[in-house]
């Protein structure tokens, strides 16, 4: 056995540490350049944030420049800020004049509490999604494949729309929990549900697809034959498959600390994501740099913790390169699979065709927020525009941009995940970085556009795929047949083409299809903030964002786009299952 594959050989840790330091440095440097990248006068922006004065005088701007020492340049400011950190001094806010560290500490504690609540909801939903597979597999009765429609529907639910519904129904109508503000543990229930349900469905769907292979391993058949209880078999199957899913916790759940801006706004929660966004919009550099550093440290800490947990679950077989390879058995596809796929395809085709025959830009102020009727099958929006027309005309643009973003992110994640020690730091940093922040940085260079927003999403969107690729490749390289292939003289290209890529690509594709609606919604959030698709261009995610304030008064304004997004997600997932069956 070569040294590279010897169990005694331990990879050096310095590349990962260097990658973390480099990624954090680059990010903080880019944040420091934000006011200069946007081309806007930082003094004017700060004055507007302080007093909402739209036309500050030249004397006022000059006084602020001198006070904040803006003429020194971005890197001088970054150096002063870094020099104060060892003393616990992150400076004072350019807007409020208050010390930065207490603001960031309070916001971080709120976000961490909300993240823990979302993590519990995520675990519960994921358990429910894969409960049937665990029950049948532990009793050797798993014969039929899953369509994946339940996880696809839940994963496609827009978090901000789900938050609005929960706040209205459970908070305002029924009065079960607070619908606004942060008053204690009871205030985290509704935000945790809004964040955890889609995340749990996504992670549960990934785990549900991996479990049949664990129940098909020889140890599971032997355990069942000797009469071990089903609970024991289920625990060992979960221990075998959870390490492959755990890296998804970093970009899916931990990223909620920085990426839950919309939910924090709806519930009026003073979290870290909202603080970072407000600081970026106001160009309040001390607050933004400190919040960004907190996100970087959180991502790195969570990445190290998750990696240690993975290694503890896999144990000695991983260290000794003795892991068996997971091979998914051939399961009978459910009879409803083709019908569900066909129904979704027909529904989207009818929607697009009927919508293209209508004018999406015609404004009729006399028909504002009209309920669905024969004249307007999906109703109208706040300007009286036909929603069916806007959905139909926005379908190709929405699906095309989202597919392009997902494909680029998945390929980038695959390539970076194949060099895990070099990319580990960048993956951990990118996983907690809000797409809104990258959108602001890129828009400062390219200007607001749909492709600028797409680039911003790709900059951070590759991290889930890189984390998944690195985890799966680590397990595959620790399998016995890889060591045997190397001993027989197999080269790197042969191992990559015949063993490593076939072990990674199916799971990566499934993950990408489950995350397709997320790409649509992130693009929508950037467009809603003026960083992406500009009005009045019809686009599904933007329709959800701009109609969200009318969800209670006119629910049809958001039900149409949300239903279309769910149908697209179900079609992608069921289509992939059919493709897998044909490939098998």
Automatic annotation (TrEMBL):
Residues 391-577 form the ABC transmembrane type-1 domain. The keyword Transmembrane applies. Its main location: membrane. Gene3D superfamilies: MetI-like. InterPro entries: BP-dependent_transpt_permease, MetI-like, MetI-like_sf. One of its GO terms (cellular component) is plasma membrane. It is found in: Cell membrane. Pfam families: BPD_transp_1. It comes from the Bacteria. One of its GO terms (biological process) is transmembrane transport. It is a multi-pass membrane protein. Keywords: Cell membrane, Membrane, Transmembrane, Transmembrane helix, Transport. The chain crosses the membrane at residues 21-38, 107-131, 152-176, 188-207, 249-267, 287-309, 337-357, 395-416, 437-462, 553-578. Belongs to the binding-protein-dependent transport system permease family. This is ABC-type dipeptide/oligopeptide/nickel transport system permease subunit. It comes from Streptomyces luteogriseus.
